[in-house]
Design a protein that fits this description.
Layout: E1 2-4, H1 18-35, E2 44-54, E3 62-72, E4 76-84, E5 90-101
Antiparallel strand pairs: 1-3, 2-5, 3-4, 4-5
């Protein structure tokens, strides 16, 4: 997923708000977890934990979040995600646990 940063996305310090970064990280990792169960339809998952690390600040441009599965089983999946800026600079990263729900 990606976001073109606009003024409404900035915090009072003029940098991309951490809440937006957390949402992007959670969504990217959650989609990766959803795809990990196979099938043609995304599996529904809920977030059990999401640990975030904010690495660098960004004020403008486009940021891209990507996620991948790092482990798990039939109902629980461990996934990671990162957000990078246009130059490939790491902005934030996260790891989480997601549970499959029916």
């Amino acid at each position: 997923m990606s976001l073109e940063i606009a003024s409404q996305h900035l915090n009072r310090n003029g940098t991309l708000h951490g809440g937006i970064l957390a949402m992007m990280l959670g969504s990217a990792a959650g989609f990766a977890a959803s795809f990990s169960f196979g099938g043609e339809v995304l599996s529904r998952v809920v977030t059990v934990t999401l640990n975030t690390q904010f690495v660098a600040a960004v004020t403008a441009g486009k940021v891209v979040a990507t996620g991948h599965v790092s482990g798990g089983g039939r109902k629980i999946v461990h996934a990671e995600a990162e957000v990078r800026g246009e130059a490939g600079v790491l902005i934030a990263k996260a790891s989480g646990v997601f549970k499959r729900v029916s």
